[in-house]
Design a protein that fits this description.
- It is a multi-pass membrane protein.
- Pathway: Quinol/quinone metabolism; menaquinone biosynthesis.
- Keywords: Membrane, Menaquinone biosynthesis, Transferase, Transmembrane, Transmembrane helix.
- InterPro entries: UbiA_prenyltransferase, UbiA_sf, UBIAD1.
- With 303 residues, the protein is mostly helical.
- It has helices at 2-8, 15-32, 37-65, 67-73, 92-117, 119-134, 149-171, 176-196, 201-207, 212-216, 218-241, 257-263, 276-302.
- Helix 2 (15-32) packs antiparallel against helix 8 (176-196), helix 3 runs antiparallel to helix 5 (92-117) and helix 6 (119-134) runs antiparallel to helix 7 (149-171).
- The termini are far apart.
Amino acid sequence: MLKQFKKASRFGVVPVMLIPVALGALGAFVWNGVFNVWLFLVTLVGAAAAHLFSNMINDLWDYKSGTDTAAKETVDAVSTNSGFLTNQIWSVRKFAAVTWGLFAVAAICGIVLAIFSGIWAFVFGALGGLIAYFYVAPPLKFGYRGKGYSEIAILLSFGVLPVMGAYYVQTSHLDLRALLLSLPIGLLTTLILFNHHFLHWQADRQAGKRTLVVVWGERRALNFSRFLLLLAAVMLIVSVIAGALPIYGLIALPALLPLSQVYGKLKPQNTSHAYLPLMGASVKSAQLSGLIMIVCLFIQGLI
């Protein structure tokens, strides 16, 4: 059952949420000299539950809308959902029960953090939950509109909100440096979610899911993907200049080079499977650069 849960919730991608939470808490440790391990652990559990809820509610609504079924039936598409609904491994009722169970865990953690740190801890979590739900759920359906709403939603959910939220939990106040710290890792996570649309953009178009890749086409979307990588690198440098990261935080920049090299191997038009290396490199670069930033902040806090 645990193995099934991990597959259904796509547990393996949870580091993209835990890394920004760790960055925010370390920011509090470095800049304010405070770190409550218990509040940090509750924040981690709540953020992880919220992320897994986001994964599963995404699958649930994409299945109901027919997007995941279209991806399965399209010859060239690479399906990125768990497959538990399209392959009928779990019933919709069971899948929904686990999904909302994760939401309940996240909500309880948010209430606990609000009691000990302040109401904004709950507000940050609630905003993240609303974005996660309405990313694919009607009437908002950020992921279906193709106007950049989904990219902004991801930047907030996996960058700004977890970093600033984790910082607030530790300090009960906000800091501009936390916002700056959230942008490099948030942009890199946005890049992961943006690049994964290349794997099944034709199936998305067939199902009426208007991602930017569908709206712009491959050539323009690839150019924007490259721009996001460049912007993440620039914001990393800005974070160092502003004092959100120590000068040696710049060693996170080389972690982006393998991803930049993958772009050079892509043509203006490619098969869906040709984007698998781009997707893999996006995940590796985001996680490696995030871990380097964590180590740099931890060292700064010790010295």
